[in-house]
Structures
1.
Amino acid sequence: MPSSEKKIEKHRQLRDSIIDSYPAKVGKRRSRHLVVKGEGDEQVEANAKTIPGIITTRGCAFAGCKGVVLGPIKDAVNLVHGPVGCSYYSWLTRRNFARPGESGKNYLQYCVTTDMQEGDIVFGGEKKLMQAIREVKEALDPEAIIVSATCPVGLIGDDIASVAREAEAELGVKVFSANCEGYKGVSQSVGHHIACNALMENVVGSEEPEETTPFDVNIFGEYNIGGDLWNITPLLEKIGYRVLSTYTGDASIHDLARAPRAKLNVLMCHRSINYAAQMFWDRYQLPWLKVNYVGVDETARSLREMARFFEDDGLMARTEEVIAEELERVRSQLDHYRGRLAGRRVMLFVGGSRAHHFQHLCEDLGMEVVLAGYEFAHRDDYEGRQVLSGMSRSSLSKVVQDISYELESGFEPAFSEEELGRKGAALEGSLLDYEGMNAHMKEGALIVDDLNHHETEVLVRELRPDVFCSGIKDKYVVEKMGVPSRQLHSYDYSGPYTGFEGALTFARDMEMAVYTPTTRFMAPPWKKEAPDGDA
Amino acid sequence: MAGNFVSTTNPCRMCRPLGACLAFRGIEDSMVLLHGSQGCSTYMRRYISSHFREPVDIASSSLSEKSAVYGGAESLKRGVKNVVDRYSPRVLGIATTCLTETIGDDVELIIGELLRDEPALREVEIIPVSTPSYSGGHYNGFHDSCVALISRLAQGGPRGDGVNLFPGFLSPADIRHLKDVMDGFGLSAVIIPDISETLDGGIVDSYRRIPAGGTPLEAVRRTGTAAFSLEFSAATPGRQSAALLLKESFSVPAERLPAPIGISYSDRFFQAVSRRAGRPVPEHFARQRERLLDAMVDAHKYLSGKRAAVYGDPDFVLGLSSFLADVGVVPAVIASGGGGREFISELELACAHLEDPPEILTYTDFGEIARAAAASGVDLLVGTSKGNHIARELQVPLMRAGFPIHDRIGGQRMLHVGYAGAMALLDLLTNTIIAGAQDELGYGYSYM
């Protein structure tokens, strides 16, 4: 198709001009992170070290571990061992929502830290940490205490795992730790892995559910930002599933412990939680299915694939009923928004899964994705999990231990090998697999990994999207450039964006971005009108 | 750290390098680079943006585990080169973090080596500032940076008629107002740092990577020749005073005042400027004071005897407390995440006329503030967004003021200083209390 070839060529030129503007060494490195779909070689260099001095949007290991995965556990207190800042800056900043569960406890509004002082750095902070854990137990009495380390802890050699063990023995409450010092790895991504390991080693399998049902599932990689989970769970329940646990939105530590007894893990955010999903598979032969509840068609597809996994006629019938009912409810409004938004162009730069998930929703609305990229993804998030076998373990992955489990002795998996083989064949590409974002992208679209500030500016100026979807660190830049934005981390206080209802909310937010009356006033009248007699 | 606890629950301060990011932002054509792991710069950008709703670019040396063990010199050098290449700043602040302070990187030495190898970088004023996150808070980092700027850049010379004004960490609207005041007195003032445009800019025709505005480099250099310096730092230790440093280095007379929040402190400020300028207070500001008095008479019927818990940065809280006392609200609990000897003694002076002495909490957290506020029985909270949990718990209104305000818009445009600022605060305070009372009425309400 000549038009797509033209687009490929145009975007290649744009990419090359960005690369040429860098000093040679930087340009060479960045060139492997900027790819045009359809140009042939679409290998995306990802999870590489950020270049110092380039303004990246990436966070650190602590942000991924405590900030993303462990932070949303509502009835545990996250005690941050370190100076005050990291705890403060991660204090509910991801808008994870939670309602108190059976224990009535919810500590998400709390920010607890050892607040290390100079003396702790010099003489060691273990005693202070021990005392802090006692205080948390005494003052808040949570269901668990999770200790996360920030940068200095690893350097001064505080043994937080030993302190946690001692404290657990003394206090009779679950205490465990995560060595997620910020300097580890290249982004928040390594922190996800550290958190998954901590959960597997300390929590998972330590409790049994009171009862099980044939359709127990865990939702993996869903953090209930803006209430996203609360759009998903009712749909699943209406169909007949029971959500045994969520990793980790609105999660109780007890639910996480009981999770191995589910029949299926459905996986939203592949990047952050695939480690745990894989370990569940190895340890309990509990398989995972890649789903996406962002987007109308995608939600329907995900529900259908879940039903196909269970191979249950009743479940399949109810799935179709629910989908039909929901579609009926949202159809006319969706048509309205489609009319308002069709053909509008979007850039998506977010996360390690969202830039893929939201493409579907944009397409539901007739919008075109001209650029998509991840902040902290790995190659498999772009190119699919088949690249994993061919990838050598880079030196960077040494910072986190890859735990490999055997099937736990005495554990009875829900399905036999044969059953799982059959299900796997029926759900090829999504059961224990993920095809990655690139496969979905249109010819000529740009794929950019670890987009930095400079590139954002050039790309927005050249491509002039109608909406730029990203996070708070770049949204004000693009807004200053006259392009509307929408945060896909915190949703700018809006959301939830999941499920059928969430699609409408997102559509409304896209509409307000494109049609805000403010744009009419951008040029002052005295600049618009020619002076008298001059026309 | 609050009460008998060694741990901190819901802190009332941020870490030291964040203050450096704010202060350098007020210097024209400047950038700041945090020497540490990249999470620091990401978290602080995120946080500063959430209050000011502006782009905030902060570079990082992005240290890895290798550099954490062997030192971050190479990463820092590369970081400096890249940020200069991309942003072409005239001033580059380099603030340390807990990571690089713990490993003991000598930033001065590393930069010295870099400038030897890359002479072109000498065009840029590179200003290292030590901001260990495990000591003090963001307000200290702010003052550290002002002191570093002055010690690095100020030059002596024949005494001129310029004025240095070190406002501390106030809002962009405050800085704009202070400029008007100095202009009104016919003074040629240099405000250091000047965040009035750089952290509260408009939509402009063409986007600038480093926003326009800020104190020009040349103006910072000239501070050594000024007629005098004013500094709003009454609650800050002298060793963190840029005005005192100029006095020691270049004999520039220095006057340290409380931030002019409320009528008492504004009177002190206007008096000081008037005396120094040798001119009466301009009519324009005298009228503002008259209107403020008129408003205080109107408002006292709703305010008298109300009790407040007020919290935030030491210098800012000192001003807010004095303002509350000025308008008849009892600052029953006064709290800061920092606050030393100077903070306490100034507060005691400001509250000497109150029947009930306030409970003053220093180096405290919201856990402790909540207990004190509940025990004291307050009618409202005054401070940052971070008090919203306590306000809900105690079921009292929260009047947002200070940094950060991330659950409302307009924090960067709030005016606190001068008579105009006292007026704005008074209206907000009174309406907060009236709305709280009206919301509680079960039978509706009409005009007042």
2.
Amino acid sequence: MSARGELPTWVDVGLIPLINLVLALLISGLVVVIIGENPFQALGIMLHGALGSLKGWSYMFYYATNFIFTGLAVAVAFHAGLFNIGGDGQAYVAGLGAATPGLILGGALAAILPAGISQPITLFVALMGSILFGAFWAFVPGYLQAKRGSHIVITTIMFNFIASSLMVYLINNVFRPITSMAVESKAINDAYILNFREIGRLIGMKLPSSPLNPVVFLAFIAAFIIWYLLWRTKLGYELRAVGANSEAAIYAGIKPSRIIMIAMAISGGLAGLVAFNEILGVQHRLLLDFVGGAGFVGIAVALMGRSHPLGIVLSALLFGLLYQGGTELSFAIQSISRDMIVVIQGLVILFMGALEDAFRPSLTALFFKVEE
Amino acid sequence: MDLSIFLEILSSTMRMSVPLILACLAGLWSERSGIVDIGLEGKMLAGAFAAAAAASYFQSPWMGLFFAIIISLLMSLVHGYASITQRGNQVVSGVAINMLAAGLTVVIGNSWYKQGGRTPALDDLTRFMPIDFPGRASLFSIPVFGPISKIFLDHSILTYLAFAMVPLSAWALAKTRFGLRLRAVGENPHAVDTAGISVARLRYQAVIIAGILCGIAGTYLSTSLSAGFVRDMTAGRGYLALTALIFSNWRAWPALYACLLFGFLQAIANFLQGVHFFGLEIPVQFFNALPYVMTVILLAGFIGKSVPPRASGIPYTKDR
């Protein structure tokens, strides 16, 4: 029996998110009713679109890959008491680190080494590049927060917009081949992650077409590493201590400014992995807006997953389902736009993040009445 | 660069500044009371959609303005309920407002008009057009003086409303009892509470003012600057207004100057595909990024210092 006023863990991590999700879906259903469609039919199409075929499942996991990275990015910062709203910008800038090795180093290595060796080396450099560029774009706001007192929320927003201008300029003026009209780099063939369909074809298996590729395993590994880091290492302890109470952490000999910078760098590095997935595993070139708002989905994913890696994996899959199902829905019912997912996302963020305690008092009252 | 382009840019600066000024003042009212408002963008966007839809349905820009204010106000109240009554995270609530607006405008617009989130194009009768005063055409045709006067006189009523809001806000915040209390609540809510004044009530009033101003800003975007709503038409203006607010150190008159400066940069970026400066070409993206870069530098305290209201972002809980 827990102390009075404290809800059991399963209510906190299970029931409250569930109530909030149901509420978000109810209101979304109301929107569907307002625009004159049947919400139950819409829900059915969404579930069938994501879970009714192997292709649907593949897309769901593909979307979830990016959302796990950005969800973890937001969560690591949350644990250190920081709100990193700049995942989109960090992933966008990480595109430089992901694409450049394949465009420059890959060709040089391919000329002197067999593809079986040059490709993995280039991919590894690109992986490190994605992490480092993403980490850098988050480290600077972290530094400014830690050393100069600029508010992290504001600086990361600013950095999103700076990243956007910077990347438009660089892709248009540096990466775009002079002869090309499309604003994108040339194809990256020297650092190419085969997707599962292509791998299946090599071994004589027929798989449905989807952008899902082995980077999805990296997402699960990342979730495990972050769990280990946060709850099994000294750094993780320090990070959570600063997030819980930075004043008290000082008395434990922890330097909050150092932790803030490290937490932001880790957060940005995780967001940067979106670039690794998208550019080398899906698009095979650097192009405009390849992040597609995944950084913001990460906020919803982290809130829904209670900032725990396991919760994040589950809620990333849920959002993957919503994205895939929502796409199918917009095909099936023309009057429901794909942007319906953005509405659901906004509602989840509102209920989970800003109104999370709205039901706690009544739930608490209910619980202790039942137990007494 | 010849003179006529320069005059065009100045004229455009006026137009680009209007939504920034209104949204920035909205942020000023809200944040001075201690409620951080990341949701300026969303409220403006929802307002722009409501204005275009209502103006087209009722064939009247004034009905557009009315519904824009109502919708923006509703979103403001959601933010207020989350931040004031529920003491939720204000930044998270703002992010949610922005997403809701971005999604709902397109979902509803697409289902009503089937034009990919657009609203029907508005004609001159259903828009806020530049005020047609007697002798307007002949005044603008006077050499030199005409084009210069055009910079200031070729605007709709909303533009003048926006500019009038600056001294009004400055005066109300500095000189009225309401303004003083509101600022006090953003600095030290405990003191205000001790004096027997309701913190929540004052903050709700501030959030309501912010909602109204964002609604007007949205109306300007879709019925004056453009002739209808297109998806994501705020294009980051809410965040730019927030940037201007920080850049101006949360004060009304400096906010006007910051908005004019940022409006000028937007006008340059729109008019010129890059500027040649002593033989160096400055790319257009530079002008787009400049406001954010300048604000980051200011926030970092390398030039001057930007200090937010002390209690901003902190939910108020009575001590027991």
